[in-house]
Structure formats: structure tokens, C-alpha cells
Design goal:
The complex is a heterotrimer of chains A (304), B (693) and C (317).
Chain A lengths: L1 H14 L4 H12 L3 E5 L6 H11 L4 E5 L6 H5 E6 L4 E6 L6 E5 L6 H13 L1 E4 L2 E4 L5 E6 L12 H4 L2 E5 L6 H10 L15 H13 L4 H16 L3 E3 L3 H17 L7 H12 L4 E2 L7 H10 L5
Parallel strand pairs in A: 1-8, 1-9, 2-5, 5-8
Antiparallel strand pairs in A: 3-4, 6-7, 10-11
Chain B lengths: L25 H15 L8 H18 L8 H20 L3 H18 L4 H21 L3 H21 L9 H24 L23 E2 L3 H5 L5 E7 L11 E7 L1 E2 L4 E2 L17 E8 L6 E2 L1 E2 L2 E5 L6 E2 L5 E2 L8 E8 L9 H6 L9 H12 L4 H15 L1 E2 L10 H9 L1 E2 L1 H14 L4 E8 L2 E3 L4 E5 L3 E9 L3 E5 L2 H4 L2 H4 L2 H5 L13 H5 L3 H22 L1 H13 L4 H24 L8 H16 L11 H11 L4 H16 L10 H20 L4 H4 L1
Parallel strand pairs in B: 13-14
Antiparallel strand pairs in B: 1-5, 2-6, 2-17, 3-8, 3-15, 4-5, 6-12, 7-11, 9-12, 10-11, 15-18, 16-17, 18-19
Chain C lengths: L1 H14 L6 E3 L6 E4 L1 H20 L2 H23 L5 E5 L4 E2 L4 E8 L4 E8 L5 E5 L5 E7 L5 E3 L4 E5 L6 E7 L5 E4 L8 H5 L16 E6 L11 H8 L2 E5 L7 E4 L8 H17 L4 E5 L2 E6 L2 H13 L7
Parallel strand pairs in C: 4-12, 15-16
Antiparallel strand pairs in C: 1-3, 2-11, 3-5, 5-8, 6-7, 6-10, 9-12, 10-11, 13-14, 16-17
Helix pairs in contact in C: 2-3, 6-7
Classes of the chains: A alpha/beta (304), B alpha+beta (693), C alpha+beta (317).
């Protein structure tokens, strides 16, 4: 199974070039049923990543461009009066899909944002007095543009932790960029990729990830890391228990992808930055930089 | 009125324990009750039986109600126990020795307090009472076992004290006992210094009556059978150590205690006044310097090796009498130690007319056969030596030396000499003295001990009550007083062999303690050795701990020469401040982290490799895998064994299914292998691979 | 007499140390003295000594010296149970007069310390166990009798652990005042509040009677306003909205109850501020020295309460 996962990662990486590590993390995020927030400048391949993932994992894919005039109903769907039947009929919105790409989520109003986030949290949508289940699996990959702050509504910290991970693709390295320039747009390749892992297998893998054991030693380590985030002066609020749980969840998926049935501190360290950084708020109001997460990892003894 | 945003979360606030009114927690109660059991237990022998039962019941009830097995006693029961107990204690205590009375009172009080064990203050009272009781217990029993037990109960008492100030746990926590033992152990050095140098002063008031100490050992009267009676007793009479660790020959081990000058026809008594011995300058090389620790006898006389020349005690004055006996002037109520010097050669002395008459005096009638025998000697004009020879020959022919000689009636000498012919040393000595006096030779009976067991481990001699002996001294007109031991005539082995070897099989021997190791163990070599070692320890114990007040001055003098207040203060404060400083350092030190057994192995590896190159030490945030890879990169030769170990380690530490580290042989094997590999190249190759690259 | 001496002495002690927000306890600040129990302990040691002397019993001597030596050891253990404690005050949460005020301190030590007691002079003591290297928040109760800023009194940290025969303690002064709001006292009427007294605010609002329109239901809307009749007809959940709801503002004015004295006025204004905020009604504040525009929300309430608490603070002293 790990081979097939590796093949899938390989396939995605062939399109999103030079970002194997990030792709792997994104897959780990999916395996642990988490939603993904990608923070990047435009043109870094956010959309391509989402699209490729959907394709490789055989998922139904929709994309919503968030704008300031986007209403909750535009995502969730709305009831429309049906003349023929003489009643309201619900028209499901784009959220009823398996992989939703919410592009530039910070451009819409908080109202719309929270409608989506609620759906993410509960896996269901309440609209027009009825509760509707979202399909399974259900992933949201939201993107955010950190550079343009004008006319945006940054996600409030309480909602940021609905995302299991926050990743950033960043500029490709020189070699990859050269290959990219030579090769041209890789997006056409997406359609040509073979489906590596079908939906059912994906869900089986998700179940298998839950079975990965987490020893007391690792739990202690996670706890120490969480405590360290709470002890650091410049951090306003430390990692919540939910955050610590997310860390363990993501570590399990990573351990599974590494072919182990137990979690080691290495797994925790790999997923630490993507899982934790966006959940912590500095006193100055800015979010955690990589140096601080690195510092935390360096200052907490792995052994106990 | 509250705003939701202003709420505070109440964290776990421990129960305040600073006030005396605070109610006792369950764990504290259990500790206090355990403490009472521990300190009361040694007293069971001393206190009246009814009190043992009542206090036992109270404690049992205390445990039961604390553990919620039983309901607390009704109020009226509690109130009625108090007067009943008070009356009982008053009645019992009046009939007891002062000490036993004190113990009774303390235990009764503690028992009553169990009824009202509610607050911290009650706990405090009990702890203080029990501290005092630990000391009181030592007045009854001072053996090593008792001392160890005493300090054990002290540890429990302090555990109870700590539990009063601890988190109010429901369960008894043995960490409390550990902490108490730690504190106690840390207090030992200063305690030892204080013990050594604190001046021992004489009792402020007399607390021991003669009544309280049972009279043991030789009495001032010897009748047939009285010495034999002592052989039923295996208790220690005294211990002696010799300068140069050279004890005299067995045949020379005559320990003199008392002389008897008056014969009333049946018993020999010590009645005459013996004046102090004038310093007799006997010029000889063969003398023994020795030190004796005498068990309390409640009698004033002390033992000395024949013949004492001088005696000295650190406490009190001793008198050496002209019959070569030593007296302390007052009954020996405590273990008493003194030193003496004795010469081996027989002592010459002038015999005054008065004394000559005194040592010849006999009752005018009785024992006609003996009189006839003595008269026949006089008639034949035998010399003293011939008379003795004649008597010894007679003894040697048909007499029997036995522990159970049977009873003698009137004319006991005749009966012994001519009828029963069975006797113990006093029979032989007594009849010999009688005959010699009849024959006109001043004679006296000497009571003491003959023999003693040399302990090779602690180099001292142990003399037991059953080694009591009686012999005779006769005045030789030419040479003065001359020791005669008629027992040697009938049973020379009495002098040659240890007493218990001689009589070990006799029923009467140490009949008072039939299961004694002495009885069983003499024939089993290892058991005997164990016994000797035990006795050696016991001797040091008696000499250095229980009798320290006798040794203190000499000991301190040997240690630091002439004593001065300044020196004493230095002896107290230098070690005191050293210990205190050490303790403070220990308490305030930064504790090194204690790692899980497997993680400790990683730290070990890190220390090992960082000795050669400090950059190889594991960083705090470095996982074992990252670290191993870093090491493998540094020294590719290590890689295989490192990875093997790493895999085992990860399985063991992070995969809970694998089990405990102790049980995992493959992990240990891989660890050993890895350490071996890591150690090798640093020695053989010298340079790490990186340097050569 | 004694009180003033005591007070002066304590002030002198404290003035030796500058006010800090973080303190590390060392031997310079820690005092140690036997407790009553400790004195009783020494008495028992003396009794044992008498016993030892009179009975010439060296084991009893040993017990006496053990007790003496342990007395010294206890000093160090008790000292070590307080030394090295790092304590830092945190910004206290505001409370109302009469409510339980608790100053928060963060304590930390590299050794585990047990049974630490914290308390202000004359106030309740709280006891905490502190684990090694684990920061702990300690809440120390204080009285909150007077509104306004209240600096913490002298804080005493003490411990008798482990043996209870010594107490070591320290006095600390921190300068992180707590804000104490006036005590909310119910009274006055809502109707009165609607009258424009302090400003030219909205007039003659009929309040909740004026139905305006139906809005589609959003989670969080009060259930009492759901248009159940409409829902029953099968048109989905809708919420009734009323005219003037948004515009309805209240003014809490100093001049509303002229008959009350200053403190009573403040108490009543406090009550109404809290009540209106609970009802999500925007309200403004008019005090002789300050005017706040109507708004709603916890931040606004906090601001309003702060003004009420600090009103004419000089007069309190």
C-alpha cells in the first residue's frame, strides 16, 4: 500500500515539480482526514496541486473562487421555488463535492468563510431547515494570498485551526524552475496521469492510519512540545489540546506513509511546523515564523 | 454577578495544611496509627496485659474506622473508656517499677489519644509522645536489634510527621517513608559527632534502685551447690580485652571476684574486713594489662585476673583489697568498665596474727571423719605439700566431678568426702579448705571465674556465668599465699578445656536456656563461627556504644591529645558545617534528568562519542534516528550496527507491542554490539572518516 | 503600638527590595524560624536528654542527638523547599467590588516544591504543590472592597514542609494593580433609561412591538423570534425582525438618579451596563468627565466599567 502511495506522490510531484516534500505532507493531510490551507503567492502552483491531488486520488473536484460578494448560499446551495412542484427545492452548492478548492478564501466576507468552515468542521451542511451530509471523503484545500492584504478578511485564529495543516509551496529551486520553463505548463499533464489510488482504497488507508500506534513516549513528547509553546513569552496563546491532537493525527499518517505501524518522534518533527505554526499567534499579532517552530523543536528534548 | 469573560478557572488547590485545626487526612491517620504500633510493640513485655489488650483494641478500631471498615465508636463508649483507663493505670502503675510505670502511662495516654485523633494538633501530640517513647524503649532493651528497631520506628514516626504536612493523599504513600529515611540518614553525621563529644555527666538524681536490678553472679556466701547453680545460666558475666591482644593461657585464666574467710559448718561467707592493699612493687615482666566490661550484678565486687596489681576506672574509684579483690564500693547497677594490670606470679604478703586467726577459725564441732583425717595428717607430721598431695590423691582415686552432685545433709564435708564423693568445684574447694584449716594452715576460699572464650574476630574474652568457679588459697609459711585448685585433681580437663565442651551434654548445663546456640552449636563448626562473629559484634556494641560513657575520655584523648573546649568546639563545628554545606549543595543541586532506560542508552552513546569529539553529542531536539544518521555519516564504519540498534530501539520504545526493555534480548544484543563497534574505531582508527576525506 | 512597629518593620523589609514583576527567591529574601511545633520538638529532645543522663543510657543519648541533628537538617530541607522559586505576577482580571479577587502569579522552579502557601496579609492562604520545571498558575485571593485600581498587598509565600518544625517565608511586593469595578446594584427602571437625558439620542422607541420584516434564519438567532407560523406552512425557518432594533440605543447617564450619592450612582450604572450588554442593547455612557458613544460588546462594556471604576478616584483615598 505504501508503494501505491509513493507512486501517487510521485505522480503528483511530476506535475507540481520539485515539491515532493510538500506534496507528501499534503497527502498525509488527506490521509488523516484533515483540511489543507495553502498560503502562497499567486502562480506558485496551488491550484495545480489541488487539481492533481483530486485526479490522482480519483476524487470529484470543484473549485470556488472566493470574492467579496460571494454569499454563503453560493457555496452551500440555496432553495429555489420550483414552479412546477409548487415548493422550494434545494440546489446543492459547490461544497457538495469530494475535493473543494477554495481559492483565495480570505477575499470573501467572514460570513461566507464561516459557512464553509462550518461545513468543514461538521462534514454536513444545514440549509433551508434540513441537514445534508457532505460526500465522503471530503477535503477542502483553501488557498490564501499573504501578500495582498488590501480588501481581504484574514481568517480569525479560532477558525484557522479547522485546517489540519498550513503549507506553502514557495518558489521552485533553480533546477526545477529551469525544467518548468523548458517543459512549459505541466497542467495539461494532469489528465494524462493514471489514477493511483481509488476512493475506496483511500478510505481504507485512512482507517489504517487510525490504527497506527502512538506510544506513551511519543504522547509525552507531543505534550512537552505543547507545553513549550505555552511557555514561550512571545506566543500569545499556546497550542490547544485540539492542536496537540491534530499533531498526533498527522504524525500517524506520516508514520503510515513511512511504512511503519507506530509513530516516532521523527514523524512528529516532520509535521510539526505545518500543523502547529498557523495555530499559534504571536503577541505582536503576526503568525509564527519558521524560526520559532524550529526553536521549539530544538529546545524540547526528544528523550525522556 | 459575573461576566463570562471574567471567569477564572480554579486550578487544583491543595488543602491548606498550615493550621493546627486542619483535620487529619486518611493517609496521615494511617501513618500515625502505624507509628503507634511500632513504638508500643517493644513495650508489650513491660506493661500490664490488660493494657496491651485495651490499647491493641483501640488501635485496631482506629485502623478499622480510618479504613471505613467500622463506624467510629459511639460517644458514650469513648467517654467511658477514659475514666476506666485512668483507674486501671493508677492501680497498675503503683505496683510497677518507675520505668515500667512511665511506659504504662505513656502507652495508655497514646491509646486514649487514638479516640480523639482528628486534627493536626492531635497528630503532633502523638508524634512527640512517640519520639519520647522510642527513647524510653531503650531503657528496657539496648541490644543491637533493639537499636535498629528504634531507628526504624523513628523513621516511621518522622514519616507520620511528614504526612501531617504533605498533600492530603488518600492512600499511604511510601515516598513519605523514603523521605523520612533520607532526612534521618542525613542527620546521622552530626548525630555521631554529638554522640562522641557531648560530655557525659553524672545522673542528676538517682533513678535506679538496687531492687530493680536482679542480683546475679557470685554471692557473698558459698554453700554446696551454689556455684553449680550458676552453670544453668549462659548469660554473660563480663568481657575482657587485653593489651597486645595476648590473653593468658587457659590454665592461667583465674578471674578473682571474692574471697570467703568464714565457715559456719555449711557455707562459706565473706565477713571479715579486708583492708586496702598497699602498693606491692612486684618486679616482673609477665603482667597483663586488660580492660573489663562487667555486666550489672547489683553487687559491689568486681573481677580481676589473678593477681591484680592495680585497677582503674574512668568513672568512680575502685579499691584493691589486701585479699586481691576489687570493689567498687557500691553495687554495680549498670554495665561497668574498668581496666587493670595483673601479674602472674603468686603474691607474697605478710599475714597478721589477727588474719592468721581469722583464716584458721572453724566451728568447733561436726564432721568427725574429716577431723580424724586432718588429725592423722598432723600426727604423721606431713608437710603442707604432702597433705595436699594426699588429699589430691584421694580426690583423684574415687571422686566424681559433676554438675549434679545431689544434696548434702549435716556434716556435709564428711558426707561429701566419705559417702557421696560426687561434687562440683565448690565441694572440692570447700572440703579442701576445711581440711587444711583443721590441719592448721590458714586458708581461704576464692570465688570467681575460670576460663573464658577468646573471640578471634574482635580480640576479646567472653566469660559467662557458667564459668563460675571456686578455689582455695592456703598460706604457705615459706612462700605466702598459694593457689590450690582441687578441681584439677579430680578433673584436670576443667581447667584445660572450655567449660561447655566438658559439660555440653549434661542436662543441667545452661538448663535455663535449653535452645541456646551454645548447646547446639559447639559441634557445628560454621554455627560456632557465626556465633563467635555475632558475639564479636555484640562486644564492640557493648564497649563502644552502650558503654561509651566509660570510654569517652580515653577515646577523645587518643583522638586529639589533651582536651580543650576549643578543640571540642572545632570537632563539633568543622564536621557539622561540612555536612551542612554538603547537604545544602545536595538539596539545591540541579538534578540531572532521569531518562527512560532506553533513552538513557542513547544518552550513554552520546556521552561516549562526544568524549572524542564534542560536536558528536546529541542535540536536545535531535531524534534518535537523525542522530544515528549523523553519526553514521561521520563514521560510515558504524552505520550497520547503529542502524540495527536504531531499528530495535524504535520498535522497543515507540511500538508498545514489543514489551519491556529488560525482556528484550535482541535490543540489548544490538546495543552491546553497537557500543563495541563505536568504541573500536575511536581507538584503532584514531581519526574519524571525515578527517581523511 | 506594636502594630505600627510591625508595620514599619515590614515596610523596611520590603523597601529593601525594588518592586519587580519577577522574583527569584534566594537566601537574601527567605526567613526561617521554628514553629510552635518545632519548639515542642526541642522540648522533647531535652526530655530525652534528661532520660539519657539519669539512666546513663547511650542509646537514649543517640536519640536525643538524632533529634537535635534532625532539627538542623530540617532547617535546610525547609529552606530548600522555598529557595529557587521563581514567581511572576500576571495581569489580574478585573472583578466587581465584593466579588472574589484573585491575583494570578506564575510560579516555576527547577526542583519540585511542596505545600507552598501563598497569601496576602490577613487574607486566606492557598496551598499549592509545584512540580519540577512545570510552570503553575497560582491564584491568591484578596479582598475587593473599594473600586478603582488596587495594587496587591504584601504577598507572603511560606512553607513548613517537610517536617513542620520550621517555617520559612518571604514577603514580596508586586505592582500589578487589579481593576475593581463598582458593585452592581439593581435599581431604577429601564423606562427611565429610554428618556433622553444626557444627550439628544433616539426618542420614543416603542421597543419590540414594531414588526418590520421576515429574514431567513441564521444560526444563532434567538429562538423566540423564529417565525414558527411561517415555518409551519413549510416555508422554512425565518426570523422576525423589528423596527428600531438596531437604532435602539440607551444612554447611561450620571444625571439619571440625582437623589443617589456618588457610589450608589456608580453601582446602579454598573448594573445597567452589565444588564444592557447581556441584552445586546447598545448603550452609551455619560459621566461628568467623560462621554462614550453607544456600542455593544464585551470590549465596550469593559471600557465603560473601567470609567465607572475610576470615576473621581482621588475622592476614594
Amino acid at each position: 500500500m505504501q508503494d501505491r502511495l509513493a507512486t501517487a506522490v510521485q505522480a503528483v510531484s511530476s506535475v507540481v515539480m520539485g515539491k515532493e516534500e510538500t506534496v507528501k505532507l499534503a497527502v498525509a493531510c488527506m490521509l488523516s482526514r484533515g483540511h489543507l490551507l495553502i498560503e502562497d503567492l499567486p502562480g506558485m502552483g496551488k491550484t495545480t496541486l489541488a487539481h492533481t491531488l483530486a485526479h490522482v486520488f480519483d476524487l470529484e473536484y470543484r473549485r470556488v473562487q472566493f470574492t467579496s460578494d460571494l454569499l454563503p448560499a453560493d457555496i452551500i446551495g440555496s432553495a429555489v421555488f420550483n414552479q412546477q412542484e409548487g415548493g422550494f427545492q434545494f440546489h446543492p452548492g459547490p461544497v457538495f463535492t469530494q475535493l473543494l478548492l477554495a481559492d483565495e478564501i480570505n477575499r470573501s466576507t467572514p460570513k461566507t468563510q464561516s459557512a464553509l468552515l462550518e461545513a468543514m468542521e461538521e462534514g454536513q451542511v444545514s440549509a433551508e431547515g434540513a441537514t445534508r451530509q457532505l460526500p465522503e471523503p471530503f477535503f477542502v484545500i483553501a488557498t490564501q494570498n499573504p501578500a495582498s492584504q488590501y480588501g481581504t478578511f484574514p481568517l480569525p485564529e479560532s477558525q484557522l485551526d479547522r485546517f489540519l495543516m498550513r503549507l506553502s509551496l514557495g518558489y521552485p529551486d533553480e533546477e526545477t524552475e529551469r525544467a518548468l520553463l523548458k517543459h512549459g505548463d505541466t497542467r495539461q499533464d494532469i489528465g494524462r496521469l493514471a489514477v493511483s489510488i481509488d476512493r475506496q482504497t483511500l478510505m481504507n488507508i485512512q482507517l489504517a492510519c487510525d490504527q497506527v500506534t502512538v506510544s506513551d513516549a511519543v504522547v509525552d513528547y507531543v505534550q512537552r512540545l505543547a507545553q513549550q509553546t505555552r511557555a514561550i513569552e512571545t506566543i500569545q496563546l499556546g497550542l490547544s489540546p485540539r492542536g496537540a491532537l491534530a499533531l498526533i493525527q498527522a504524525s500517524k499518517a506520516w508514520a503510515y506513509m513511512e511504512g511503519r505501524d507506530f509513530v516516532t518522534p521523527d514523524d512528529v518533527q516532520v509535521v510539526f511546523e505545518p500543523v502547529v505554526a498557523h495555530r499559534l499567534m504571536l503577541r505582536s499579532g503576526t503568525q509564527l515564523g519558521q524560526s520559532i517552530t524550529t526553536n521549539i523543536l530544538a529546545s524540547v528534548d526528544v528523550l525522556s | 454577578m459575573k461576566l463570562p469573560t471574567f471567569q477564572f478557572k480554579k486550578s487544583t488547590v491543595a488543602e491548606a495544611t498550615n493550621k493546627p485545626e486542619v483535620l487529619l487526612a486518611r493517609s496521615s491517620k494511617l501513618w500515625l496509627l502505624t507509628m503507634l504500633v511500632a513504638v508500643c510493640l517493644p513495650q508489650i513485655r513491660e506493661i500490664p496485659l490488660w493494657l496491651t489488650i485495651v490499647v491493641g483494641a483501640l488501635l485496631a478500631w482506629g485502623f478499622a474506622s480510618t479504613l471505613k471498615v467500622r463506624k467510629p465508636l459511639a460517644r458514650w463508649v469513648r467517654w467511658s473508656v477514659v475514666p476506666l483507663m485512668s483507674v486501671g493505670v493508677l492501680v497498675s502503675a503503683s505496683g510497677l517499677e518507675s520505668l515500667a510505670g512511665l511506659a504504662t502511662l505513656l502507652i495508655a495516654g497514646a491509646g486514649l489519644k487514638v479516640l480523639e485523633l482528628r486534627t493536626r494538633r492531635d497528630g503532633w501530640v502523638l508524634v512527640l509522645v512517640s519520639l519520647f517513647m522510642v527513647a524510653v524503649n531503650f531503657l528496657f532493651d539496648q541490644s543491637i536489634v533493639a537499636a535498629l528497631y528504634g531507628f526504624f520506628s523513628l523513621a516511621i514516626t518522622f514519616a507520620a510527621l511528614i504526612s501531617l504536612n504533605e498533600v492530603q493523599a488518600k492512600q499511604v504513600n511510601f515516598g513519605t517513608l523514603k523521605r523520612s529515611a533520607t532526612i534521618l540518614a542525613q542527620s546521622v553525621p552530626v548525630m555521631v559527632v554529638l554522640f562522641l563529644v557531648f560530655p557525659r555527666i553524672e545522673p542528676l538524681w538517682s533513678v535506679k534502685s538496687e531492687r530493680a536490678v536482679a542480683k546475679t553472679g557470685l554471692s557473698n556466701e558459698v554453700d554446696p551447690g551454689s556455684v553449680a547453680n550458676l552453670t544453668r545460666n549462659d548469660s554473660v558475666a563480663f568481657r575482657a580485652s587485653f593489651t597486645d591482644d595476648a590473653p593468658p593461657e587457659r590454665s592461667q585464666r583465674y578471674w578473682r571476684a571474692i574471697t570467703y574467710d568464714f565457715y559456719d559448718g555449711r557455707s562459706w561467707l565473706n565477713v571479715g574486713k579486708n583492708v586496702g592493699l598497699e602498693a606491692s612493687a612486684i618486679d616482673t615482666d609477665t603482667y597483663y594489662d586488660y580492660e573489663i566490661i562487667m555486666e550489672p550484678t547489683a553487687r559491689p565486687w568486681l573481677v580481676a585476673l589473678d593477681y591484680p596489681q592495680s585497677v582503674r576506672a574512668a568513672r568512680g574509684t575502685l579499691t584493691l583489697k589486701n585479699d586481691f579483690t576489687v570493689t567498687a564500693g557500691k553495687p554495680i547497677l549498670d554495665r561497668f568498665s574498668y581496666s587493670g594490670r595483673s601479674v602472674v606470679r603468686e603474691a607474697t604478703q605478710e599475714l597478721s596474727l589477727q588474719d592468721r586467726e581469722r583464716f584458721l577459725r572453724l566451728p568447733p564441732y561436726g564432721n568427725p571423719q574429716a577431723r580424724a583425717l586432718a588429725a592423722s595428717w598432723v600426727e604423721q607430721q606431713l608437710s603442707l605439700t604432702e597433705k595436699i598431695d594426699a588429699l589430691y590423691r584421694r580426690f583423684n582415686q574415687s571422686f566424681e566431678y559433676t554438675l549434679s552432685p545431689g544434696r548434702l545433709g549435716r556434716n556435709s564435708v564428711d558426707q561429701f568426702l566419705f559417702e557421696t564423693q560426687r561434687g562440683f568445684c565448690e565441694h572440692f574447694a570447700s572440703s579442701t579448705a576445711y581440711l587444711l584449716r583443721l590441719a592448721g594452715h590458714p586458708t581461704r576460699l576464692v570465688g570467681g571465674y575460670q576460663g573464658g572464650e577468646w573471640n578471634p574476630y574482635e580480640k576479646y574474652m567472653l566469660v559467662r556465668q557458667y564459668e563460675a568457679h571456686a578455689w582455695v588459697e592456703v598460706w604457705d609459711e615459706n612462700t605466702g599465699w598459694r593457689r590450690l585448685d582441687p578441681t584439677t585433681a579430680v578433673a584436670p580437663e576443667r581447667i584445660q578445656l572450655p567449660f561447655d565442651e566438658l559439660f555440653g551434654s549434661s542436662d543441667d548445663f545452661i538448663a535455663e536456656s535449653p535452645l541456646s546456640v551454645l548447646r547446639l552449636g559447639k559441634n557445628i563448626e560454621w554455627l560456632n563461627e557465626v556465633r563467635l562473629r555475632y558475639e564479636a559484634v555484640n562486644y564492640s556494641w557493648h564497649r563502644w556504644i552502650l558503654g561509651y560513657h566509660n570510654q569517652q575520655v580515653d577515646f577523645l584523648h587518643d583522638l586529639m591529645g589533651s582536651l580543650s573546649t576549643l578543640k571540642l568546639l572545632l570537632v563539633i563545628f568543622v564536621p557539622g558545617s561540612l555536612v551542612t554545606g554538603g547537604l545544602i549543595w545536595w538539596l539545591l543541586r540541579a538534578r540531572p534528568r532521569r531518562y527512560h532506560a532506553v533513552d538513557a542508552d542513547v544518552q550513554y552513546l552520546s556521552r561516549l562519542v562526544s568524549r572524542a569529539d564534542s560536536s558528536l553529542a546529541r542535540e536536545q531536539g535531535e531524534t534518535v534516528r537523525t542522530y544515528c544518521w549523523r553519526l553514521a555519516k561521520h563514521q560510515p564504519y558504524w552505520e550497520e550496527s547503529l542502524m540495527q540498534w536504531l531499528n530495535n530501539l524504535e520498535q522497543l520504545r515507540y511500538s508498545p507491542a514489543r514489551g519491556q526493555p529488560e525482556g528484550d534480548a535482541s535490543y540489548h544484543a544490538s546495543f552491546k554490539n553497537m557500543i563495541k563497534t563505536v568504541k573500536k574505531p575511536t581507538r584503532l582508527l584514531g581519526k574519524p572518516a571525515r578527517a581523511s576525506a | 503600638m506594636w502594630d505600627t512597629v510591625d508595620h514599619k518593620f515590614r515596610n523596611w523589609l520590603v523597601s529593601r527590595y525594588p518592586v519587580q514583576s519577577e522574583v527569584l527567591l534566594t537566601h537574601k529574601r527567605i526567613y526561617i524560624f521554628p514553629t510552635l511545633a518545632g519548639l515542642a520538638f526541642i522540648c522533647v529532645a531535652l526530655l530525652v536528654l534528661m532520660l539519657a543522663i539519669n539512666y546513663q543510657n547511650n542509646l537514649a543519648y543517640a536519640i536525643c542527638f538524632t533529634l537535635t541533628s534532625l532539627f538542623i537538617t530540617a532547617i535546610m530541607h525547609t529552606y530548600a523547599n522555598l529557595s529557587g522559586l521563581r514567581i511572576r505576577i500576571q495581569t489580574p482580571s478585573p472583578v466587581f467590588v465584593g466579588d472574589e479577587l484573585r491575583y494570578r502569579f506564575e510560579v516555576l522552579s527547577s526542583r519540585s516544591l511542596k505545600q507552598l502557601q501563598f497569601g496576602f496579609r490577613g487574607q486566606e492562604q492557598v496551598t499549592y504543590d509545584l512540580e519540577r520545571d512545570k510552570p503553575l498558575l497560582v491564584y491568591v485571593p484578596a479582598s475587593s472592597e473599594v473600586r478603582g485600581w488596587q495594587a496587591p498587598a504584601l504577598l507572603r509565600i511560606s512553607s513548613v514542609y517537610p517536617l513542620g518544625i520550621f517555617r520559612c517565608w518571604t514577603w514580596l511586593r508586586f505592582e500589578e494593580p487589579a481593576l475593581i469595578y463598582p458593585r452592581p446594584v439593581a435599581g431604577g427602571e429601564l423606562g427611565q433609561l429610554n428618556r433622553p437625558v444626557g444627550g439628544d439620542g433616539a426618542e420614543g422607541h416603542v421597543g419590540e412591538e414594531d414588526f418590520q420584516e421576515l429574514k431567513s434564519y441564521q444560526p444563532g438567532a434567538p429562538l423566540s423570534r423564529v417565525a414558527w407560523k411561517v415555518y409551519a406552512k413549510g416555508y422554512g425557518l425565518h426570523v422576525k425582525s423589528y423596527q428600531g432594533e438596531e437604532a435602539q440605543e440607551r444612554w447611561l447617564s450620571w444625571h439619571l438618579w440625582p437623589q443617589l450619592d456618588t457610589e450608589a450612582k456608580l453601582s446602579r450604572l454598573t448594573y445597567w451596563a452589565v444588564t444592557l450588554n447581556e441584552r445586546q442593547t447598545p448603550f452609551g455612557l455619560v459621566l461628568p468627565n467623560v462621554t462614550m458613544e453607544p456600542a455593544v460588546g464585551d470590549d465596550h462594556l469593559r471600557e465603560v466599567l473601567k470609567h465607572l471604576a475610576l470615576y473621581d478616584e482621588g475622592a476614594l483615598l
